[in-house]
Amino acid sequence: MERENRERTGKERVGSERHRGEEDYGYVKEVVPKNEVQGHYLISMESNQLTFGIGPAGTGKTYVCTAHAANLLLQRKIQKIIVTRPAVEAGKGLGFLPGTIHEKFEPYFAPFRHILSSVLGARHLENLQRLEKVEIQPLEYIRGLTFDNCFVILDEAQNVTPEQMKLFLTRIGENSTVVINGDITQKDIPGESGLKDAMERLKGLKGVKVIEFTEDDVVRSGLVKEILRRYRDPATK
Q1: Selection from 19, 30, 31, 11 nearest residue 127 by Cα
Q2: How far from 57 is each of 37, 52, 115, 220, 227, CA to CA, in Å?
Q3: SS (H, E, C) 123-147
Q4: Which neighbouring-strand residues pair with 53?
Q5: What digits encode the pLDDT tens for the residues 20-45?
Q6: CA 37, CA 218: separation in Å to the nearest integer?
Q7: At what angle do helices 194-202 and 162-169 cross, to 10 degrees?
Q8: pTM higher than 0.85, yes or no?
Q9: Which fold has domain 2-236?
Q10: Using an 8 Å Cβ cutoff, are 125 and 156 in contact?
Q11: Dihedral of CA 139/28/111/106: which sign?
């Protein structure tokens, strides 16, 4: 009967072996690329330790890598997911916001929470966070950490300084996959972007791949694609 149910739904239960303090994680939901570049992006994550996803909003960078990481966790191919990003908004960092570190950082985690909940389920996500299998870490607080046996996502990397990027990259440990996403045209910090600097330094290095998205790869809507074009073309002002 169980086999028939799996065949009928096209999904196979993962994590049937229970461990103390853990629950079954849920079902693997295949990440289907919506275009050729998303396909290259997925392949790179599967075959390289470090992947850069570069391009405008709406191209699915955050969704694809986060959903892929969730599936790896469901299959127990990794021990945890770590999500980080710089806390930069209107020129202010975490120190300007009230509350604890995690309370301050929670709004920045909202897009990831939505994606992870859609793949893992909200209840499972809460449990995995309690077990520290899904962690959110402000970039400003990763000093001293080592990323071993995990999937690490650095988002909005255009707002990382070269010094912060070097600190982040030197945290990479054994058996880890790292994805760095950003849009160089949307930098909100003064000075040089650590994303651009790292791409130039590391491009061509074995185990490192740069995947570039364009406005043509936007998957949100035709309107978003046209809006991006209009903002890029000074003749439309």
Answers
A1: 19
A2: 14, 15, 16, 9, 11
A3: HHHHHHHHCCCEEECCHHHCCCCCE
A4: 181, 211
A5: 334 455 567 789 999 999 999 999 99
A6: 10
A7: 50
A8: no
A9: Rossmann fold (3.40.50)
A10: no
A11: negative
Cβ contact 78:134 at 8 Å: no
Exposure letters 203-235 (e unless 16+ CB within 10 A, then b): eeeeebbbbebebebbbeeeebbebbeeeeeee
Question: What would the pLDDT profile of 145-168 be if each residue is shown by its tens digit?
Answer: 899 999 999 999 999 999 999 999
List the domain boundaries for the chain: 2-236
Query: Looking at this protein, which amino acid is placed at residue 56?
Result: P
Closest CA to 81 of 118, 133, 122: 133
**CA atoms of 15 and 35, how far apart (whole Å):** 30
- Given a contact cutoff of 8 angstroms between Cβ atoms, the answer to whether 80 and 132 are in contact is yes
Q: Listing from the earlier edge strand, what are the strands of the sheet with 134-136? A: 134-136, 80-84, 150-154, 177-182, 50-54, 208-212
